[in-house]
Amino acid sequence: MFNPILNTDSYKTSHFVQYPPQTSRVFAYAESRGGRYDETLFFGLQAILKAEFGRPITRRDVDEAQDLLRDHGVPFNTRGWDLLLHRHDGRLPLEIRAVPEGTVVPTHNVLMTVVNTDPDFAWLPSYVETALLRIWYPVTVATISWQVRQIIRDALVETADDPEAELPFKLHDFGARGVSSEQSAALGGLAHLVNFKGTDTLSAIVAGRRLYNEPMAGFSIPAAEHSTITSWGRDGEAEAYANMIARFGKPGALFAVVSDSYDLYNAVEHLWGEQLRQKVIDSGATLVVRPDSGDPVSVVAKTMALLGERFGTDRNSKGYKVLRNVRVIQGDGVNPESIAAILARITAEGFSASNIAFGMGGALLQRVDRDTQGFAYKASAAEVAGTWRDVFKDPVTDHQKKSKRGLLGLVADARHGFATAPLGADFAPVDGGTNLLRPVWRDGKLLVDDSLAMIRERAASFSLPTAALA
């Protein structure tokens, strides 16, 4: 079991003696300072609090940290951690406020604030920065997923009969094997499931149950990989495909088959489209063909055209072609830009976005970092000798790193939906209104335990650019 005291940066262990004398409270905030996208979808704080803040610190933790940090060469706040054990039974005397998870907020706004509730622990809000700032990861994944949702939704609205029914299964998480740890797979995979319901990341399903009260956060279908096809030999390719129909081809079912092990276009045109065509139709299932190599835009377009020729199409109410008995899933080279390009190509050629789903791996869960959305956690105010003073930096060498100052909250704003606002000493907005950052944690207790279903509703309510705060 990890030691919460050591879940920080080494240099922070010396900060308890660096604040001015008589410092009784420190107020800190987290924000996205801007990056790839102009909005962020807030998600993951509840998971971090449950997983990393819920267990009280013990005497064993204190002793271990003291020994390790002494040998490591940095100070240890023996008095502070002993006081935490005796006065607070090992629970952190902090109040954490945050915007409700699932809320989409323009960048450069405060998303979360932290302040100590015991004047002897003014050093603590900064000490927990390392653990809390890792919120950047689920927020960034959720944001990318949400942005892709907008791209796909727009295409479905234009070309599909029932956009809202189809949308939840149009982006599938293929990223479990491409992340640095199972913890990343769980948290990042669950962040994606705020926006969609398709995933092959089982760790995310477990996380949904344990951390967000969701019995089943996502779904998958039977699918082939190259080894299950190529193990039949090149001459047995058609047999391998026929086996998939026999095993999974039930009325109303879906199953996916990677079809580019040798010659994708031959497989689509002749094996699926001629030799096995009637078996696919008679099965009553939907075959999902997966190309897995080449230029995603041109390969998907040609695959769809060949399937249309062999299986036929119907015109939907918006005049776009919908494949009979088959669909396509593209899981290679998938990112927000290629998704937009693929959708633009196939719809320009008269095919509905109903015909395709996407599988996104590294670009969803791993090809991100803290700078993708410019996340920062900074102290902005300190109470010294009973008076609050602003705490901020403004480097002359880089004004982009200027931090916010004072006690801060988030309020509704008619123009942008949200705005960061100054708070008074009573933690209420100076100019009136309500601080939308609600208390989620206080003195070792979780105050809000949202379900994934509730978070999904919030995120979906922000689907349109004109959506206002509900």
From TrEMBL:
A molecular-function term among this protein's GO annotations: nicotinamide phosphoribosyltransferase activity
Pathway as given in its UniProt record: Cofactor biosynthesis; NAD(+) biosynthesis; nicotinamide D-ribonucleotide from 5-phospho-alpha-D-ribose 1-diphosphate and nicotinamide: step 1/1
Binding, diphosphate: 177, 226, 290
Cross-referenced SUPFAM superfamilies: Nicotinate/Quinolinate PRTase C-terminal domain-like
Protein keywords: Glycosyltransferase, Pyridine nucleotide biosynthesis, Transferase
Known catalytic reactions: beta-nicotinamide D-ribonucleotide + diphosphate = 5-phospho-alpha-D-ribose 1-diphosphate + nicotinamide + H(+)
Domain Nicotinate/nicotinamide phosphoribosyltransferase: 169-408
Entry EC number(s): 2.4.2.12
Location of the Nicotinamide phosphoribosyltransferase N-terminal domain: 5-96
Binding site for beta-nicotinamide D-ribonucleotide: 200, 290-292, 331-332, 362, 370
CDD domains attached to this UniProt entry: PBEF_like
One Gene Ontology biological process: NAD+ biosynthetic process
Family annotation (Gene3D superfamilies): Aldolase class I
Coiled-coil regions, chain positions: none
Superkingdom per UniProt: Bacteria
Enzyme class: transferase
Annotated NCBIfam families: PRK09198.1 (NF006629)
Family label: Belongs to the NAPRTase family.
Protein name: Nicotinamide phosphoribosyltransferase
Organism from which the protein derives: Sphingomonas sanxanigenens DSM 19645 = NX02
Lineage per the UniProt record: Bacteria, Pseudomonadati, Pseudomonadota, Alphaproteobacteria, Sphingomonadales
